[in-house]
Amino acid sequence: MTKTVMITGGTGFIGSHVIESLLNNKNEVILIKRSFSDIWRINNFLEDIRTYDIDKIPLQDAFKDEDIDGILHLATYYTKKHSINDISPLIQSNVEFPSKLLDLATENNLDFFINTGTFSEYAKNPIPLNENSKIIPSNLYSATKGSFENILKTYSFHNDIKSATLRLFSPYGPRDDEMKIIPYLIINALKNNSVKLSQGLQKLDFVYVMDIANAYLKTVELINNFDEYNTFNIGGGFPYSIRDIVSIIEELSGCEIDKRWGSLFEEPSVIYSDINKTKELLDWSPSFSIHQGLSETIKYYRDKYDL
Questions:
Q1: Short-list 235, 252, 247, CA closest to 295
Q2: Which of 197, 207, 237, 288 has the maximum number of C-beta atoms within 10 A of its C-beta?
Q3: Number of helices and strands in the chain (H, E)
Q4: What percent of the chain lies above the pLDDT cut of 90?
């Protein structure tokens, strides 16, 4: 059954893939953005969606004009290490804005609100991390994400709106921020540039962006089956070290990377997800292996830079 879905964060890396998947599955998409948002990721299908620039018109107008089934909230303000100047935008973007959106969703009797969380809300041990693992946010960004989740739980309990949070582990794939580790490695491998790295011993749970998009689609499809608020881990369920990723990229690209191990400091850690709940309730697990996902990502950057 097709739905009319409002999405925030749709001009970003993950959001652009979610919009594309929604359209491919015959859903109607309403994008909430700002007039100055960079739309390069969605240019190919921008004409197929309806947009509202909330710096130009009241947010309420979108709810008055459209018959919306539910909301996918992906917009975020991210910083790993905040300064005092980040505090207000972190709270405004990650707590205040989605709270206003949620209030309008309940006021207008929307069916669902699907939120985006992060694995960095969890304490790092013990692993694997499941949805009942202890919450100790690793930074202020993670704390603001957790704060809104508590607000969402409250609204879900007291109002007739289905809600869930997808806690994402380490996403990668085409159209990513090129300063992140996987695009950084791939682009520099293809250009025969050296790369500065830590010792590469930290292990992360990488999950391909198209698998993440499919998780959102599954949640939209099944959320009415759930009687209460739920969180779902969206990860690969297996940790790969940065050294593992480097080796796989070298193998798939045919390029030997000039690696400057130890040039950067990163505390060694191992983080990965338990996705059994997600498998059971959403019938979701990753379709792309790490080799398949990296192969698709390498092809994207080869084509983008004609390498």
A1: 252
A2: 207
A3: 10, 13
A4: 96
* pLDDT number for residue 266: 85
User: How many Cα atoms within 13 Å fall on the side-chain side of residue 149?
Assistant: 21
* Tokens read off for 76: 């975020």
CA 208 to chain centre: 10
Tokens 């609100």 correspond to: 113
pLDDT of residue 268: 82
Q: Are 30 and 38 in contact (CB under 8 A)?
A: no
Q: Are residues 8 and 146 in the same domain?
A: yes
Q: Residues with Cβ < 8 Å from 43, sequence gap 6 or more?
A: none
* Dist. CA 219–CA 167, nearest whole Å: 12
Element (H, E) at 49: none
Angle subtended at Cα 238 by Cα 22 and Cα 210, rounded to the nearest 5 degrees: 15
Model-level pTM? 0.97
Peptide bond into 58 cis (omega under 30): no
Nearest to 170 by CA among 236, 74, 126: 236
Query: Are 194 and 135 contained in the same domain?
Result: no
Bridging pattern class, strands 112-118 and 162-168: parallel
Domain CATH code at residue 122: 3.40.50.720
| CB-based burial label for 194 (10 Å; 0-12, 13-18, 19+) | exposed
CB 264 within 8 A of CB 149: no
Per-residue pLDDT at 7 exceeds 90: yes
pLDDT digit string, tens, across residues 68-118: 999 999 999 999 999 999 999 999 999 999 999 999 999 999 999 999 999
Looking up residue 192, the CATH number of its domain turns out to be: 3.90.25.10
Vertex 182: Cα angle to 180 and 188 (nearest 5) = 95
